[in-house]
Each structure stands twice: as structure tokens, then as C-alpha cells.
Amino acid sequence: MTDTWRLLMTPPARGAWNMAVDEAILETAGRGASLPTLRLYAWAPACLSLGFAQSYRDVDVARLTAHGWDVVRRATGGRAILHIDELTYSVTAPLNEPRVLGSVLESYYRLAGALVQAVRQLGLPVEMEADAPSASATKGPVCFEVPSAYEIVVAGKKLVGSAQARKKEGVLQHGTFPLTGDLTRITQVLAFPDEAARAAAAQKLLLRATTAESVTGQVIAWETAAQAFVAAFESQLGLRLERGELSTGEKARADELFQKKYDHSDWTERS
User: Fold this and answer.
1) Are 9 and 244 in contact (CB under 8 A)?
2) Is residue 163 part of a domain?
3) What is the number of domains present in the chain?
């Protein structure tokens, strides 16, 4: 089985725009107006993203503003992620696309196979996490504290984190591959009762998550990581990825979603 998907590599953009683009693609791919799409992208400036149901009270707004970083709420679940020094991917497809058929976990597993292969091609000895964490392990505000089922780990530390939303339009899964930098930066812009709690959260994060540079001792360029993702998705999922661009309609819809949803306080600042 070899099918053609669209490949998008979009330039670094604000968090609200990135989330608007993912949703716009979901709508068009879901109704068959565009091909299923693998999108690879980055963020500028750095952006704190909150899970769909996460409270905005988790954000230390003053600290976030002082850093000059953005904040956005994702359409997918999970906890907070600081998007900086990373490659982000999104997969958007209609519900009847064979690679996303079935339950969330079933489709997660298929896509995780491509993620594992991509990261191994870059020299990282990663494995796929088999079991979901307990409910008590996932209460903190930071997404990367604990790996979920079928996420990508190195020596037990989370490396690639993903989240999926299944809508009537189709399936959206996006995730992050941290390339370099200090993972504890996220704790500087989240709300904690005191500085001791902030320091403890930072230490806990370093014990449970890692970056590509921390594993290999080398900085992997975004473009190098992107090419590994393309090759792995094609070989592991039996795809031919055809480089494309956002359609005029997708751009217009993304602009509407940016203004009315993702860059609007009614969406982002829900408690």
C-alpha cells in the first residue's frame, strides 16, 4: 500500500498561527479537499502551549511577558509544552485514512513507528513507551514530565511527545521533538506556590525528559531532523510525500481561526 500525502514545511511562526494552520488543514483534509498532510514546522517567538482542558491559571503571565514568549491553547489534550529549539510535526487525515483508523491508541501506535524510525536515523537509541502512566503521575502542569503510551523515550526519559484529537472532520495529531536547549525553561513561566516548588519541578523534569543534544552530544539541525522525518514516514507508513503549499482556502481559513479563536483571550485564557 503506497499512497500520496502532502508534505508541508512551513516557516517559523507564532503559536496562534501554527495552531490555526493545523486546524485549517484538518478541515480541508477531512472533507477530501486536500491530501492527508504531514506538516513540519517551528515557532517564533517561543510559545507556551496549553492542553485543550488545561487551566490558564497554570501560566505565570508576568514571567511569560518578561521573557517575550507567546501563549496558545491547543485543540489537543495534555499539559503545557514550551515550544522552542524543536521540530514540531502534525499529521492531519480523514477518519477513513488507513493509517489513522481505529482507536486513538491504535493510530498512535502506527504513527509512533514512523517517529521511532526517524529519530533512530538521527543516531538516538530510542524506544516506544508501552504503557500509559497512572493518573497520579500526570497531575503536574508540564507535559514532558511523564511519557504516555507509545511515546518515544531514551533510557526511560521522554524525548518525543504527541497528542491527538479526533473530530468529525478527521484526525489531528501533533507532537514535538526537542533538539537542544534547557528543558527546565518551561518552569520559569508556569505558576508555582513558591520558588522551592519551581526548583523541584525543574529537577523532576530533567530526571524524566531529555533533548536530542543531551543524548548525542551534538546539535541536530532542524533541516536534518525534518529530512529524517520525511524518510521515515515514507518508508514506515508506505507513503509518497509530495511537497506542497497551503491552498488559498486554507490560508484564508487559518487567518480566520487565528483572529477569532487561537489569538483570542476567550479561547486561550479559559480557566
Assistant:
1) no
2) yes
3) 1
For 241, residues 6+ apart whose C-beta sits below 8 A from its C-beta are: 4, 5, 6, 7, 38, 230, 233, 234
Which helix (H) or strand (E) element contains residue 262?
none
Q: Find the CATH number of the domain harbouring 242.
A: 3.30.930.10
Separation of alpha carbons 203 and 206, rounded Å: 5
Rounded-to-integer distance, Cα 97 and Cα 120, Å: 26
What pLDDT is attached to residue 255? 98
Residue 266 domain-assigned (yes or no): no
Rg (alpha carbons) of the chain, rounded to whole number: 18
Query: For 125, what's the count of Cα atoms within 13 Å in the CB-facing half-sphere?
Result: 4
Q: Are 219 and 113 spatial neighbours (Cβ–Cβ below 8 Å)?
A: no
pLDDT for 235-260, tens place per residue?
999 999 999 999 999 999 999 999 99
- Let me know if 143 is a catalytic residue: yes
d(CA 50, CA 79): 6
Positive/negative CA dihedral, 196, 198, 204, 207: negative
Residue 51: which domain range?
A: 3-261
- Helix or strand or coil: residue 73? strand
**Catalytic pick among 46, 71, 143, 246:** 143
User: Residue 139 — φ and ψ, nearest 5°?
Assistant: -85, -20
269 domain residue, yes or no: no
